[in-house]
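Our working data are protein records whose layout never changes between entries. Instead of coordinates, the fold is spelled out as a row of discrete tokens. Here is such a record, shown just as it appears in the course material:
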Amino acid sequence: MDDIGPPPNPRLDIRDLRVVLALASAGTTAQAATVLHLTQPAVSRALLSAEDKLGARLFDRTPRGLVLTTAGEQLVAGAKRLLVEWGDLEHRVRTPVAPPVRLRLVCECYTAYHWLPSALVKLRQSLPGLQLALAVEHTQSPVSALVAGDIDVALITSATVPRTGLEVRQVFSDEVIFVMSASHPLASRKALTRDDLRESTLLTGQTPPAEVHWFMTRAFGRERPRLRFERLPLTEAILDVARAGMGVAVLSEWIAGPHLGKGDLVAKRLTSGPLRRPWRIAWRPEVGDAALRLAAALEPTVPRALAVG
């Protein structure tokens, strides 16, 4: 047998990583305690112990809750990969001849289909035991399809997931940006105001009502102004109309990214800051292990757009 040398002796253990990940997801010791089935003091002590072992502060304590420090972000990113690899190793050891797992996957927002197929090619290489099939016919109603058992996993943005019967976790986020012709009157602005949106024709695709509600809430808060939306069926049509100066396209960063940098289109944010849209993965409990491995593998494959100016 080959001599592999003495094994490493890390300062943290699995329990430390689970506590840190739970705190990063929950944002408070009280919510993390509920997830971990521990008391709040026990979670606080566990966090202090982990920070003491590392000699580094993992969270900043703020009035709004816990915020990851740079060291904490590094630990969380590495811990996710480590636990997935650990679980994958255990799975292979327990069931070395287990049949491949087949997942039927759908995305609530059609924009994901612009990058997901190429991402799945890479996933099949890194997770050869996982077979993925896109169920695009359920794009408009992914949660209903999950509940009915017609699909196994869904990538969702704004859909409401029942509290029982399904599992859900946030996996990444994208930014919704405003794209317009370089000659548009608003193109010289550093950022757009709410009044700019009220006075513009906003170009979108066939956006589900829940997605429109998310956008209105993030952009206008409780206010509900009457906006002029022009809904076009194809991304190319949206960009062509924007390029012609006939409106402002509201698009995901990964849709707009390849079209920026050519000089004819520019992208803007709101003065209030980026519109970050959270993406979650929801799955049926019986495919939990495969769904978690899929979530961990998808996160680093998500494309990013060019800088928004």
